[in-house]
Design a protein that fits this description.
about 650 residues, alpha+beta, Beta-Lactamase, five-stranded antiparallel β-sheet, 25 helices, elongated, 3',5'-cyclic-AMP phosphodiesterase activity, protein homodimerization activity, 3',5'-cGMP-stimulated cyclic-nucleotide phosphodiesterase activity
Length: about 650
């Protein structure tokens, strides 16, 4: 650098060091080399670039460029090579409500650099990807738009043969200035204001990351607070993920069928299943989740890409229009337990920032889900043990009180444990249709489902390590199997009504333990009451069980149309009046069975009162069903609504006050 030496007023003494002479040397300011820009206007603009928001800085730069180039509009495209995407924050003096992001390959970015005699120049021959961007911003596709690349580390507007990295693309719409003038103006401007803009962007990115980490921390805190409830956890994971990444829908896919069955079994009633909104499926049945669960790689694809996996997803999810998909693995340490798939980002496509969030959620969500699955398995094991202990205690009381023998108690215990094994959601009468597989398998008349259940129980008992009754002698073993058969078939309500008179007489005249017929009738009554015990619980449980029964009932009715020309009208959802159906069932089946048992055990009277209370609730709800019928609202939809319980409780309170 040239320096200007001023003459000395006096000669310094010889003991002064040489470097002290440099204090008298004044540096000459290098030339700015401004060929088209007005220094005064540039300084005025730089003075205004003191904002903390990059969008505001861009608006001021755009306004300056518009005025100096006499353009209809100007805007800057930020080029991000790592995620291979670009973004636009402002157009002219206006800020976009949402930052416009779009994919842009590194090859296209490199082609944006145009040089002439080592000088950056404007580009009039636009790449199709860039043209597509402009078409989304402006309605008029015939506008004349020229672009000027802005290098990241440029000191002047000369091209360098090495490491050319465009950071921005300045775009000019319908400019009246020559291209060479625009190119020089842009490069002279950004020689000085680019550091200000980039520093502001860096500060905003740091703030964005800080906020993102705080949000993620809050989300993970919610994950770990719901480990004790697998349903709540799944709801939290899918909802938080959907909101963080701003997608329209989020689903969880599990890699292990046993985990899926464990979660499915936790849906005790249809109402609980409905309240748990997230959709949990098996990853194996879907292209992208299956690929992610097997490879552990994140997939970010959209409709405009050539992707075979995305094309398969279009066919798998044809109930709504797919625009883009982000699917990431759910990890538990080194194991992948499933995948989370997000559909249709609300604005634009999924971005690099979305992928960063997904990678973090992949670990924390996976660990929480894994721990919750373990907790659920542990809880189920405790519940099964507690249930088995309670059943054993009750059966011991029956034996101690000399109502039944130990062998009869064991057969009753096994029948209760194996109740509804391989349940087909249809009654025995439906299984007797000629085309049904069970009908052809069990040729004996009636009780097809019960005979199938007995067969499954015997199959389990004959499995290796499961035959706990092989210690019985030959006679007791044969007797146990006969008792198991009688009690399993007794769960068929047609058998219950067949022996109804015998049960009534036995309870009225007194139980004789030495009478084999009494012991059979008594154990049959016990297993029937056990089968109907759901209706002795409170109103909420009784209602939820009724919903499940109605769904199975009407589904069976729809299927019967294929087999019978005149199926029962009581199975037609369009004809049946639900409250009457359930009240008749509670009064004629449940109440009569428990009343007979209450004659023998005074404690059962409390269950009788519970059934009567549920009958009152159903009777009170009739006006709600009539109102729903008048408005065209389906009865099942009414039952599953949140307002239904509140309206019934209010009606019950009103009846109580009138009394």
């Amino acid at each position: 650098m040239e320096t200007l030496k001023l003459p000395l007023l006096f000669t310094p003494p010889p003991y002064c060091r040489q470097f002290e002479k440099q204090k008298h040397e004044i540096e000459v300011i290098p030339s700015l080399n401004l060929t088209v820009s007005n220094p005064s206007k540039l300084l005025t603009l730089y003075e205004k670039l003191h904002d903390n928001a990059s969008k505001t800085i861009e608006r001021k730069i755009n306004s300056y460029l518009m005025k100096e180039t006499d353009s209809a509009s100007t805007f800057l495209i930020h080029l991000l090579p790592v995620p291979e995407e670009a973004l636009i924050q402002t157009v002219g003096a206006e800020e976009l409500e949402d930052t416009f992001r779009f994919p842009l390959s590194k090859d296209v970015m490199a082609q944006l650099i145009q040089c002439e005699n080592e000088i950056l120049k404007c580009d009039n021959s636009l790449n199709p990807q860039i043209v597509a961007i402009f078409e989304k911003i402006f309605d008029n596709t015939k506008l004349k738009i020229i672009t000027v690349p802005i290098l990241k580390n440029q000191t002047y507007y000369q091209c360098s043969a090495q490491n050319i990295k465009p950071a921005l693309l300045a775009c000019f719409v319908e400019s009246k200035k020559e291209d060479n003038f625009i190119a020089k103006l842009v490069n002279e401007l950004f020689r000085f204001c680019l550091p200000v803009l980039f520093n502001t962007l860096a500060t905003e990115e740091e703030a964005r990351q800080r906020k993102q980490y705080e949000t993620l921390l809050d989300a993970t805190r919610k994950f770990y607070s719901h480990i004790d409830d697998i349903h709540e956890l799944i709801t939290v994971i899918t909802n938080e993920t959907r909101q963080l990444i701003n997608a329209r829908k989020c689903s969880l896919f599990l890699a292990n069928l046993d985990d899926l069955l464990l979660i499915s079994r936790k849906y005790n009633t249809p109402l609980e299943a409905k309240k748990c909104k997230p959709c949990v499926k098996l990853a194996l049945h879907f292209a992208i989740p299956d690929h992610v669960a097997n490879t552990g790689t994140l997939i970010n694809c959209h409709r405009n890409q050539e992707s075979a996996l995305f094309n398969e997803s279009l066919m798998e999810f044809n109930e709504f229009k797919l625009q883009n998909i982000l699917c990431f693995p759910v990890r538990d340490e080194d194991k992948i337990i499933g995948a989370v798939q997000l559909y249709n980002k609300r604005k634009g496509n999924f971005t690099r920032f979305d992928e960063e969030i997904a990678n973090i959620l992949s670990v924390h969500g996976g660990f929480a889900l894994s721990q919750s699955l373990k907790f659920t398995k542990s809880e189920n094991f405790k519940i099964r043990n507690q249930l088995a202990d309670n059943l054993m205690i009750r059966h011991e009381h029956l034996v101690e009180d000399k109502y039944i023998t130990q062998l009869e108690a064991l057969a009753y215990f096994v029948t209760c444990l194996c109740h509804d094994v391989d349940y087909r959601a249809a009654n025995s009468s439906f299984q007797q249709t000629p085309s049904d597989g069970l009908c052809t398998l069990y040729s004996s008349p009636g009780s097809v489902m019960e005979r199938h259940r007995l067969s499954q129980i015997l199959r389990i008992l004959n499995s290796e390590g499961c035959n706990f009754v092989d210690i019985l002698n030959r006679e007791n073993y044969r007797l146990f199997l006969d008792l198991l058969k009688d009690l399993t078939l007794a769960t068929d309500l047609s058998i219950h009504f067949k022996h109804y008179t015998k049960k009534f007489i036995m309870t009225k005249n007194g139980y004789n333990r030495n009478n084999p017929e009494h012991r059979y009738v008594f154990t049959s009554l016990l297993v029937t009451c056990a089968d109907l015990s759901d209706h002795t619980k409170d109103w909420t449980v009784s209602k939820d069980v009724a919903i499940q029964l109605f769904q199975e009932f009407f589904t069976q009715g729809d299927l019967e149309v294929n087999y019978y020309s005149n199926p029962l009208q009581m199975k037609d959802i369009e004809v049946v009046f639900m409250p009457d159906l359930i009240v008749n069932f509670l009064r004629d089946v449940c109440l009569t069975a428990f009343k007979m048992l209450a004659v023998m055990f005074i404690e059962i009277k409390e269950l009788v009162q519970a059934i009567k209370r549920n009958i009152l609730y159903w009777e009170t709800s009739k006006h709600l069903f009539l109102k729903a019928l008048d408005s065209g609202k389906p009865s099942l939809e009414l039952l599953q609504s949140e307002e239904f319980d509140k309206d019934v409780e209010a009606a019950i309170q009103l009846v109580a006050t009138k009394k």
